[in-house]
Amino acid sequence: MNVFYATLFAATFLFTCSSAIKEGETCVNDKSCDSGLQCGTCTGNVTVPPRCIRIRPHEPVRKVRGLPFNRYSWLMTHNSFARMGHKSDTGAVLLAPMNQQDSITVQLENGVRGLMLDMYDFEDDIWLCHSFHGRCFNYTAFQPAINVLKEVQDFLEANPTEIITIIIEDYVTSQSGLTKIFKASGLGKFWFPVSRMPNNGSNWPTVDAMIEDNQRLVVFTTKSSKEASEGIAYVWRYLVENQYGSDGMKNGSCPNRAESAAMNTTSRSLVLLNHFPDTPDLIEACKHNSAPLIAMMNTCHDAAGNRWPNFISVDFYKRSEGEGPPAAIDLANGQLVCGCNNIDLCKPKMAFGDCGSLEDSPAPTPTIEASTSTTAAAMGRGYKNSFADSDGQRLRFGWLLGTGVKKDASFTNNTTIILLRDWRAYDYF
C-alpha cells in the first residue's frame, strides 16, 4: 500500500510540474507558470498565495500586418540599462537609481520593444550612466553603451521580423560619438533613416516595408543638432510625450513634457506615455503599473486628441497586480489596429471598429489590494523573490531617498558616500 501511495504522489507531482499554470492561477515559482508569465503577488497579506502574472504583451503584428508603424503600440522601459544588482564596470559601488529587474536581452525576450538609454562621454568612450549635471562619474556609470547595443544587435539578428526603438537621453559631446558606437556595434545595417520619417503628422512606412528593407532600428536623440550632423532623429520633431516623473502621474491630468509640443499636436505622428515616479520603487511599481496606468492612458488619450500611445514607458515592467503594462499595451493596440478594446479581438481584413459580439466588455482593469501587514516593507509587501530571469535580490542601497540611504544599506572598502537630497538634481529621469 505504501508503494501505491508513493507512486500516486510521484505521478501527481510530475503531472503538476509538467502542466504549465495559466494566468491568475496559484503557483510555486516562475518555472511553474506558462510562457510570458511570472509567479508572484503584490499584496501585503502574506497568506495570499502567489499566482501567475502576465509580463509579456501580445504581439500586434502577428495579429494584423500591413499597417503603418504609428498604428501599433510598443512596451518601453524607462532607464532600460539601470538593472537591479548590476555592478558598475568601473569597479566602483553604484550610487545610482535602478529602474529595471532584467538585462536588455531578457527585456527584449519578454516583449519590450522600446529602450530609453542615457548616454554620456566617460573614460574616452560612450557609457550608460544615470547621473546629474551632464557628467558621468564612476559611481553613476553602469557600463559602456556598446555592450547594450550589441545585445540589441544580437536580438535583431535572431529575430528578423522585430522592430526596436531606442530613445537616447543624449549627453555625448564627442565628435560623431554616437555614430561610431552604433557602427561598432553592428547596428548600422538595421538603421531606419531620418529621410523616411514623416515630420508632418502623416503615417510612417508600414511595418512590413520596414521589415522587408531590414530597417528595423528606430533611433531618436534629445539633441536637435545631431539630426543634421549624424543623421539621428531629434525625438520631439516626431513625437509628443507627457510629463515624466511624479508630476506626470496626477489623476486626470496629462501635461506635455516641457521639450515636447502639446499633446494634441497632430504634426507629430507618435505619442509616448511616461508612467513612472521621480524615485524608482520596486514595491510601489505594483500599484503604479496596474489600475493607475490604465487610467492615465485613457486621460492621455483624450489630451492627445483621441490618440492612443505608441509607446508606454514604465519602471519595473514585470511588476503589477496581474494585468499591468501588458494589458495597457494590448488595449492600445486593439484601439490602434482595429478599434477594439484588445488586440486579441483584431482580425485580418475586419472593418475598423466592427468588434460586434467579440467584445463583451472593456479590457479588465487590475484591482489593487492595499497592504495591511506591519511587516510589509520587510517582506517585500508579500511579493515573492522569484522575479523571472532576474537577480531576484533587493537593491543593495535602495536609493537615496531625500534624507539619506535606507537603513539596511552597508558600505565597505572606504567607499565615499555622496547623498543627493533632491532627486531632481538628476538629468531628466
From TrEMBL:
Gene3D superfamilies: Phosphatidylinositol (PI) phosphodiesterase. The keyword Aminoacyl-tRNA synthetase does not apply. Residues 1-20 form the signal peptide. One of its GO terms (molecular function) is phosphoric diester hydrolase activity. One of its GO terms (biological process) is lipid metabolic process. InterPro entries: PI-PLC_domain, PLC-like_Pdiesterase_TIM-brl. CDD domains: PI-PLCc_At5g67130_like (cd08588). Keywords: Signal. SUPFAM superfamilies: PLC-like phosphodiesterases. This is Phosphatidylinositol-specific phospholipase C X domain-containing protein.
